[in-house]
Amino acid sequence: MLRQLRRAALTILKRSGSFELVKNSNWRQQKLLILCYHGVSVEDEDQWRPYLYMTAEQLDRRLNILRDGRYAVLPLAEALQRLYRKDLPPRSVALTFDDGGYDFYKRAWPALKQYDFPATVYLTTYYSAAQRPIFNLIVSYLLWKGQYAARVDLAEYGIDFPTDLRSGESREQIVSRMLEWTERRSLSGKEKDQTAASLASRLGIDYETLCRKRILQIMNSNEVKQLTSEGVDFQLHTHRHRTPATEELFRREIRDNREWIINLIGGGREHFCYPSGAYRPEFLSWLAKEKVVSATTCDTGLATHASNPLLLPRLIDTSMRTDLEFESWLSGVGHFLSRRSPGAFAYVAD
Ligand SMILES: [Zn+2]
């Protein structure tokens, strides 16, 4: 109901010219909208997790809105420099993509190239070398794909309760129980992958075909190198997509991640994105010690020159948002209509 009311209000505001007014205002010119994308479906991932993925068609519509609305899509580093120097051009936007999935290579970058828009990819590196699907994500995806399979016995993965794969809640319960089960056994990456393969076979899904399509995989070294040569900016997102609570382990995540990227494509890796948008106050000094100059969160909002550079807000854009809502944020109108709560966002890619 609230959502419908908000959409009705946005339609009226757009028709009355308010979007144009705010978008070209001095107020908006002092702000930077950093957009956050997670995934663009290689196949049907947006139907599995609409709050993380969108289709290539939807991304294309968004890029079209950016172009037609004459938004200044800037490289992230330049956008941040100009934000703090207070010389942003009118209608500034920066595009960021989290994780560095193969879907970025296959779907997002070809679209961005058509519009000549720069993008930053926050690359998590452990699975880039592994070249297999991210375990906790593929388990959830397989259960979703296999939801209509006849009653499945999952006791061999530690699932000792009745399961109903048609219920999203039940599937998520199975995923967390399976993750605990693999954790307790300290399974290696290879063993986890074998577990995923065996689960797929139990559900009647051809796992190797999914692997060949590179669904839920991170870009490999050659793809990262190729996109770097085409202008993509790769930045830090921790090696294993996690933020340990102790300084030593936290900083090791940053260093491992950075070293991997630098070995591949060279230096200049000083921008960071908190995995799952999760941060604690002590992370800021640890990041500063690692000479990280900016860090983005999943908290919703426009960045201003008063924003802490290590706690930059973004707007998460997924298939859950309509084009109108998206445009309201580009113009700045969305800022006035949003509940400014931090983005509650549970996502772990390891
Ligand atoms: Zn991430």
Lay out the secondary structure:
Elements lengths: L1 H14 L2 H6 L2 H4 L2 E6 L1 E2 L4 H4 L4 E2 L1 H13 L3 E2 L2 H10 L6 E8 L2 H14 L4 E4 L2 H5 L4 H11 L22 H17 L4 H14 L4 H6 L8 H9 L3 E4 L10 H19 L5 E3 L9 H7 L4 E7 L11 E5 L6 H9 L1 H5 L13
Parallel strand pairs: 1-5, 1-10, 2-3, 4-5, 5-6, 6-7, 8-9, 9-10
Bound molecules: zinc ion (ZN).
The site of zinc ion (ZN) has 6 residues, from strand 5.
Could you characterize what this model shows?
- With 350 residues, the protein is of the alpha/beta class.
- The chain folds into two domains: 2-130 and 217-337, Glycoside hydrolase/deacetylase (TIM Barrel, Alpha-Beta Barrel), CATH 3.20.20.370; 135-212.
- It is 48% helix and 12% strand.
- It is built from 17 helices and ten strands.
- The strands form two sheets. Strands 1, 4, 5, 6, 7, 8, 9 and 10 form an eight-stranded parallel beta sheet that branches. A two-stranded parallel sheet has the order 2-3.
- α5 packs parallel to α16 (323-331).
- The longest helix is centred in the C-terminal third of the chain and has 19 residues, at 247-265.
- The chain is globular and about 60 Å long.
- Residues 341-350 have low confidence and may be disordered.
- It binds zinc ion.
- Zinc ion (ZN) binds at residues 98-99, 237, 241, 275, 349.
